[in-house]
Design brief:
This protein is an alpha/beta fold. 43% of the residues lie in helices and 15% in strands. The radius of gyration is 19 Å and the shape is globular. The structure holds 3-methylbut-3-enyl trihydrogen diphosphate (2 copies) and magnesium ion (MG).
């Protein structure tokens, strides 16, 4: 078990993003319905949110529901949306106690009204919290985000607001759902799958990737600390040579 004292406090990733995967397989292994896995996954969410706040992570982004997840059976989608509402109601306390601001990215218009209203309420209530920003990716798809970005910029170009040759990384960043977030430093995916599944494609350009076999409902803060310890042993060269960095 990794203790947070083992971490180098001078090299804590500024932005961690997590693909929380494996709820269904966790439930299946136990002979339970998939919903039980999603329910249990909320405990892991609390663990990583509190663990991240404890060690001074400034930005934590959790992939909770993808644009592709709308294609799951209606019953499962409904369960996930209900769980979102109940978790928001329950966890507002955790957010306030830990001075955490809630943020959301994705096509939020597609969420059921109840979920959207609850989400907006928690975002509003926590907007002055400044210890950490917790971003939930809901009905989020990176390609959809990029299409939206290109459309918005195109309209500005057409209306003469932006000149095409002035389009740069900063302009693109400003039009993404993640406009207020720094680039991802560490991307974690649980459950053994080694893919990105349409998550933050632009924003992870230079992220360190960490894959673990642990199924999301079993993920605990010590597993988060282990991922960070692993991250701290890496050399982020950003295209340079090792010699240039030292
Ligand atoms: C992650 O667990 C939760 C969501 C994608 C909403 P899954 O439900 O994908 O679990 P597996 O991958 O089927 O085990
Ligand atoms: C990615 O998990 C989306 C979330 C964790 C919310 P999926 O389980 O939907 O991804 P695939 O389908 O295995 O790539
Ligand atoms: Mg999955």
């Amino acid at each position: 078990m990794i203790d947070k004292k083992q971490l180098d406090s001078n090299n804590i990733p500024r932005h961690i993003a997590i693909i929380m995967d494996g709820n269904g397989r966790w439930a299946k292994k136990k002979g339970l319905f998939r919903a039980a896995g999603h329910e249990k996954g909320t405990k892991a969410v609390r663990e990583v949110v509190e663990g991240s706040a404890e060690i001074g992570i400034k930005h934590l982004t959790l992939y909770a529901f993808s644009t592709e997840n709308w294609n799951r059976p209606k019953l499962e989608v409904d369960t996930l949306m209900k769980l979102l509402v109940s978790s928001l109601k329950k966890e507002i306390k955790t957010l306030q106690e830990n001075n955490i601001q809630l943020n959301a990215i994705g096509n939020l218009q597609n969420l059921p009204k109840k979920a959207r209203v609850e989400l907006m309420e928690v975002i509003e209530k926590t907007k002055s919290n400044d210890h950490m920003v917790l971003t939930l990716a809901l009905s989020y798809g990176s390609r959809e985000e990029l299409i939206k970005t290109i459309e918005e910029i195109s309209i500005k170009v057409k209306n003469g607001v932006i000149s095409p040759h002035l389009i740069n990384e900063a302009v693109i960043n400003e039009h993404l759902y993640t406009k207020n977030l720094p680039d991802v430093d560490l991307l974690i995916r649980t459950s053994g799958e080694q893919r990105i599944s349409n998550f933050l494609l632009w924003q992870i350009a230079y992220a360190e990737l960490y894959f673990t076999e642990i199924l999301w409902p079993d993920f605990r803060r010590t597993d988060l600390f282990e991922a960070i310890l692993n991250y701290q042993k890496r050399e982020r060269r950003f295209g340079k040579t090792s010699e240039q960095l030292s």
